[in-house]
Amino acid sequence: MNISIVIPLLNEEESLRELHDWIFRVMEANKFTYEILFIDDGSTDNSWNIIHELSQKHSQVKGIRFLRNYGKSQALHAGFKEAQGDVVITMDADLQDSPDEIPELYKLITEKNFDLVSGWKKKRYDSVIAKNIPSKLFNWAARRTSGLKLHDFNCGLKAYKNIVVKNVDVYGEMHRYIPVLAKNAGFQHIGEKVVKHQARKYGKTKFGYERFINGFLDLITIWFLSKFGKRPMHLFGALGVLMFFIGLASAAYIGVMKLYKLAYGLKAILVTENPWFYISLATMIIGTQFFLAGFLGEIILRSKRDKERYKISETENL
């Protein structure tokens, strides 16, 4: 099979038939073998009935239904798990992504050997204040932290080799950072293509302002995992040692000053009455905790690696 098209959706009953017909025309014109996977993320309208109806008429249409809303990441994860095509295309169901882009995306994967191609909505038809400006800020931060020179990380229109979607774990709200997840998984040939963006034809957006807050928090998580996920001691151990020695040096200074004042008959308060002593003590305790957190993280990772090696050796011996 050439292409699997994964479409997560929430309450998009007005656009589903039109989107399917548009995809059908493009696929037939290019003689692609394909499947369309609609992932209904807990819709409360008539979306699932329409998907069921389309699947009865067209063997290429398949549907997965969540009983409640889990989020776009979980919907994509479910679609990736079921996708059978050599190339996997993701797109939104609101008709803002154009199926006419699919043939070129397919060629970039199959002929140019990209692992992943992300769409770039260079000209957008969204609200400048609500989406465009926050999106530019968000993409700038993602570029700086990930090292990927993409203009539009959150574009729903993307193309992947099948092996990429099978090896990327999309969870939480990490769908915004699939290119970063792919890079961290070892897929380095990641490209970008300018795609058409269309104004929403039906309904209204399902995303609010909180997605930008969540997006930046997820970006911090991705940055941390990519930089220190395999070596937690490098972060927690270094912080722990630094804080412990700062606290120890401060406590030593307080002790030396106490002895100095006693030696020269100067007025000196008890060490335990000095508030800086407790600050130093707390710093040493926190430093020790940081160090232990890094040490435990290394033990957990070592145990995980040992299990993976055991599984590999067991498989090779069969």
Description:
The protein is of the alpha/beta class and 318 residues long. It has two domains: 3-228, Spore Coat Polysaccharide Biosynthesis Protein SpsA, Chain A (Alpha-Beta Complex); 232-317. The chain contains ten helices and seven strands. Strands 3-2-1-4-6-5-7 form a seven-stranded mixed β-sheet, sandwiched between helices. Mean pLDDT is 86; it is low at 308-318.
Outline:
The protein is of the alpha/beta class. The protein has helices at residues 16-29, 47-57, 72-82, 102-110, 128-146, 162-167, 178-184, 210-228, 232-263, 275-317, and strands at 3-9, 34-41, 61-66, 87-90, 116-120, 158-161, 190-194.
Examine the secondary-structure arrangement and name the CATH architecture of the largest domain.
Answer: Alpha-Beta Complex
Describe the global form: elongated
CATH T-level fold name of the largest domain = Spore Coat Polysaccharide Biosynthesis Protein SpsA, Chain A
Radius of gyration of CA atoms, rounded to a whole number: 27 Å
Which CATH C-level class of the largest domain is it?
Alpha Beta
Q: Residue ranges: pLDDT <50 for 5 or more in a row?
A: 308-318
Supply the helix-strand structural class: alpha/beta
Oligomer: single chain
Number of domains as seen in the coordinates: 2
Please summarize the sheet with the most strands. Answer: 7 strands, mixed
Count of runs of 4 or more consecutive helical residues: 10
Largest sheet: spatial strand order:
3-2-1-4-6-5-7
As a percent range, the share of helical residues equals 40-55%
N-to-C CA distance: 31 Å
Question: What is the string of SSEs from the N terminus onward?
Answer: EHEHEHEHEHEHHEHHH
- CATH homologous superfamily descriptor of the largest domain: Spore Coat Polysaccharide Biosynthesis Protein SpsA, Chain A
**What is the number of E strands?**
7
- pLDDT averaged residue by residue: 86
Residue share in β-strands: 5-15%
